[in-house]
Amino acid sequence: MSNTPTPHISAKPGEIAETVIMAGDPLRAKFMAEKFLENPVLFNSVRGMLGYTGTYKGKRVSVMGHGMGIPSIGIYTYELYNFYDVKTIIRVGSAGSINKDLHVGDLVVAMGACTNSNYAAQYELPGTFAPIADFSLARGAVEACERFGYKYKVGNVLSSDMFYSENPHNDKWINMGVLAIEMEASALYMNAARAGKRALVLLTISDHVLTGEQTTAEERQTTFTHMMDVAFSLL
Fold it and tell me: Which of 2, 96, 107, 125 has minimal CB crowding within 10 Å?
């Protein structure tokens, strides 16, 4: 706790709940605070990365942005797990489908996260690490999707270091059954594993890499809240 506030989070000890629901866009975190939380209090605005703590159905919870890409989420979640004693982080984000049966608006419960990042090199492991979700959270998310009637798939995603790639073909990942591409899950899962904490990534398909299918602004407004419903149901 002596490391707080950190260079990136201005909260004092005790201002962040043990469970944090995170989104890449800090304005989406603000949206969650306004839509889901009772009496939200801003605990961070450093670099515009908004974070709030409030209650949801009587349970204390925080919401916060984590930025784009593995380096950004790696920093924020490391600090939350290791300096603020956060026990559980749930990321809600968007992804591009590379699965023919996974369409715009559908949800993905990311059971595992492949990556083309070198993030795991820091651990100096004698092999390849497989970053995975906390099973109890993943099971709860599946049960929530069934209860809400939301269309979903459970499986592997690709956490890519590149949004614009010189070689955008994804055939090899498709051949291995990877469902969708996003940019953060693997670092979150590795940070959770190293800290002995819990993590889950819930994704909404915002576009289809293979067919060119994309969400409209209205669809993003109405369907992106589904993953938030699932996330808050896990509290």
Answer: 2
Distance CA 18, CA 80 (A): 9
Residues with a catalytic annotation lie at 207
Specify burial of residue 205 (Cβ count, 10 A radius: 0-12, 13-18, 19+): buried
pLDDT tens digit string along 137-195?
999 999 999 999 999 999 999 999 999 888 777 889 999 999 999 999 999 999 999 99
Distance (Å, rounded) from C-alpha 156 to C-alpha 109?
9
Q: Both tokens of residue 162?
A: 């590149």
Give 220's pLDDT tier (boundaries 50, 70, 90): low
3-state SS, residue 135: helix
Q: Look up residue 161 and give its two tokens.
A: 């270091």
Rounded Cα distance between 1 and 12, Å, is 9
Q: What radius of gyration do the chain's Cα atoms show? A: 17
How far is the CA of 73 from the CAs of 1, 81, 183, 232, in angstroms? 20, 12, 9, 20
Confirm if 81 and 197 have CB atoms less than 8 A apart. yes
- Please return the burial class of 96, using the count of CB atoms within 10 Å of its CB with bins 0-12, 13-18 and 19+: buried
Distance CA 48, CA 50 (A): 6
What is the C-alpha separation between 72 and 60, in angstroms, rounded? 25
